[in-house]
Structures are given as structure tokens and as C-alpha cells.
Amino acid sequence: MQKLVVRCFALSLDGFSSAPGQSLENPFGKGGLVIMDWARQTRSFHKMIGQEGGSTGIDDDFMAKAMDNIGANILGRNMFGPVRGPWADDDWKGWWGPNPPYHTQVFVVTHHARSALAMEGGTTFHFVNDGIESALQQAFVAAQGKDVRLGGGATLVRQYLQAGLIDELHIVITDKLLGSGERLFEGTDNLARDYECVETVASGTVTHVRLAKKKRD
Amino acid sequence: MQKLVVRCFALSLDGFSSAPGQSLENPFGKGGLVIMDWARQTRSFHKMIGQEGGSTGIDDDFMAKAMDNIGANILGRNMFGPVRGPWADDDWKGWWGPNPPYHTQVFVVTHHARSALAMEGGTTFHFVNDGIESALQQAFVAAQGKDVRLGGGATLVRQYLQAGLIDELHIVITDKLLGSGERLFEGTDNLARDYECVETVASGTVTHVRLAKKKRD
User: Fold this and answer.
1) A64, A194, B105, B143 — which has fewest CB within 10 A?
2) ipTM of the assembly?
């Protein structure tokens, strides 16, 4: 059975996955990037951006496994870029430069049509404008038996959560405070009914928590 | 310097300190009591309700210290009881029976006047209806140099947080999901500016986090 999984999704201690004011300079909003400090110091992250060094241990283990058995990715439109509304042109090609760290087909959920965009390293961005279930269906096909990773942002993860379509959700509760921003858990009343916590592991400053869909009898 | 502290304040993983539907049978709302499981299994809690046994370790250490150097307590009206609106009579004397676990002066913040209520074991409930600062002032006096503990509920803790009056806030992030209920961190935009995380300790299923007011230069 293929799964839809969320991995390494960081939250501030007060429940926000980004601060207000997303822009080209601030993908996580103003001051929001601190919730990724735990990840950016790991060896796996260093490797991903072509650097030596970095920490090993629990945080690095989760980072290292983030792409394990992932055959396709799904992203929300705001996670793909700061551009809002219809695509004026094809200039914006994501935050990640010419060789994005996905190396799979990536399905970007958006209200606005745009042609597919092939990047270096095996990443192709497809823009899906007929809903989250269509994006998931296409991603499962593209993943060829492997799992699909939903990268974020919070709005899209919330939509998939509300629909009960996420099989595993790994969140990272950090020791950072944002005060305001975008919540992951908002209007997710079905959470208590449909999901349960299956793992809690702390690594010093952050706590890794894995939620899984409850088994139906 | 006397401090206003919050200790052992439990939250669900999705950020709620109680579920909807508080009533006489359900002080934490329907199904909400599960966020206190970690506390109820400790030796300190067993001792508090006159029972033998219970777990030792990190959770118990926090429970054991919850009343350390506390000279007075402050409670919100909903934490004192499920009664809403003006006090019809003096029948309701709190959730805790004739000998409440406070053993100090307790200031209950309410909109509605009521005479002080002396209980067994040194607890006296005072009903303060002129605001949170007045309650704090009275509690500091009653504490005679010791600290004051703010017990909850979330609404009152939030008000003191927003006013920057809490010196230390110990929260317990549990592995339980509630889906909806009352949030602690809502409209607390000042949190990032005024507070910082000074300790994160995990005990298996829950994570203890201590926030402290930032030092001003």
C-alpha cells in the first residue's frame, strides 16, 4: 500500500509553521526560519546543500530518512513560491535554484494553470489545479509503488489532514516562539478521531512526534 | 523578587488545554482529561489524593516541585467550577472536596462578587472581581515573600501572558490529540518578544517546556 506522508514538518512551540510576511527573502515569514534551526545544523542538511560537517544524532536521523522510499512529492503553491494569483510568466522556478532537492515528479497544488517545468536532477514541477485528491492520485501514479511526501505548507497539509488522506505525519515541535503566523492544527477537529500519536522522541531542544492514521476495524 | 509562575500546565499535541463541553463530570471538557494522564500516574499525584504507589522520574519530579515555594494561588473562575454567571448560592465549593490541594490563600478571578470561603487544610478562596492585576497584587501580599502560582484555566493564563505578568511558564506537551477546545496560545502575539524557552525535557510520552520572561537590559 502506497502512503501519503509528511516528514520533518516543524512547528513553533506556540503552534505556527511560519510567521506572517512570507516574501522572497523570508520563505517562512519574518523571523520564521528559526523553526528550521534544528534541521539546518544536521549533517544531512549540510550534505543536501553541498557542505561538509553538521550534527549527527536524532535530528539528523530524521532528516536523513525524510526522502526514504519517496517516489513523488506534493507541495502547496505558497511553498513553491511567494507569487500569488495567476502566474504572470514562467520566471519563478521555486526557492531551490536549478537543481531542487526533490529529484522526483513534484505536484504543486494551485488554483492557476501553468505548464510543467522540468528542472535539473530529475525534478519536474507539475501544476495541478483540480484539487488535492487529483494531485494525490497523480502523485501515487508517478511514485510507481513508492510513497508520496507532502512537503507543505500548513494550508495544504491541513486540507489533506481534514480529508483524512495523510497516513503518517511527522511533526517537529521546536523551542522557538513565533507569537503569530500560520497554524497547522486549525479546524482539524477530526484529528482526535482519525489519528493517534505513535512515537515521541526528544533530541534536546526539539521533540519529534509521529502521528498515524488510526486502523479501522 | 516574588514571581508569578505557571507549573504543570498540560496541552494536547494540537495545542488545547481542555476539550469543549466542561461540566461537573468533565472539568477538562469531554474527553479532555487524557491530557492529565502523565500527571495522574505519578507518585506525587497519588500522594496528593492519599494513595500509595505511582511512577517516579521526570514527570514526578515536576509534579513534586509544583508547589515549591508557593505562598498563594490564583485560579480562573472556570477552573474553580463549572458554574457560569452570577453565583446563585454558595453551594459550589470547588472541584476538590472539603480539603483542596492548595493549602494557601487562593484568589479566584471572576466577574461576580462572592464572600470568601474558608476550607479545610488552610485553603481559603477569595473571589476577586476587579481584574487580574488586583488579584496578583493581593496574591503577592498573601504569599508573604513566596511565589504565586497561577493554576489556570487557559483563558486566565492567556490574559496574564498577554500582560507580560507571568515570570515562568512550565507547559507539558502531551501526546494526546483533542481536535478542538480551548487554546493557551491564541492572541499571544507578544510571546516571541517577551518570552524565551529556557528548558526542554522529554519523559517518554510528554515534553516539559519552561518559558521565562526575557531579561530587559
Assistant:
1) A64
2) 0.86
